[in-house]
Fold this sequence. Notes:
The protein is an alpha/beta fold. It has a single domain (3-256), classed as P-loop containing nucleotide triphosphate hydrolases (Rossmann fold), CATH 3.40.50.300. The chain is built from 11 helices and 8 strands. The chain has an 8-stranded mixed β-sheet with strand order 3-4-2-5-1-6-7-8, with helices on both faces. Strand 3 and strand 4 (81-83) form a beta hairpin. Helix 1 crosses helix 10 (220-232).
Amino acid sequence: MTKIIGIISGKGGVGKTTTAINLGAAMNYFGRTVTVVDTNLTTPNVGLYLGVPVVPITLHDVLRGKKEIKEAVYIHKSGTRIVPASIALQDLKKIDPKRLSKAVEGLRGHTEYVILDIAAGLGREALSSLKACDEVLIVTNPELPAVTDALKTIKLCKEMQKPIIGAIVAKTNIKNRDLPIKEIEEMLEVSIIKIIPEDRAVKESHILKDAVVHTHPRSAAAIQYKKLAADLLNVEDYVENIEREPLSVWDWLAKFMGLR
């Protein structure tokens, strides 16, 4: 049985794509088969984040009726399965976002979990992606504009009768004057199920074109993503200690090459 989980936010730049990629990678870590689909048709980032910005078959080809979605699945070097969207401007022509839901349905029975990286905002792309979801995970930042937009998204999900797993507050930093988590939870009227700290390891994972779960597995952010996956998968015995000082890009590369 396949479960489709939508990762959505009302505002861009909150860590939605990072969450989608790392939740997928963390579920892989626990032995599940997962496919991350970039349903952000106008500004896709999954392929960019994983070092495969251009591929022969994309989700856009599927939406034009040229290919089946199973043909657009690629296996990243890490083992994560992805369906990238095209970054080419011309590929936005002659596609109908309304076909998204039917296209994603083509993955049922071929993977245990489908993670949708849904476009920010409440436009046609987001609405079409939401229709395909069995459950939804809200991503926000501890800032008033992000929380306000997340609240709009939550109301939309409820109107569409899409079950909300909970909310994730990403890019938190005790050095900043962030909104208190309790206050965010009260505003959203949704449980905050995980807090992802602002972590330089995440930025370095983007440079390395991989999930932070793989590049810095014991960083604070990676462990929180793995805890999120463990909670969603009902894995009860996951315990791992945080490595307080994540490796720099160059240290990681040296370790990977066996130089340290």
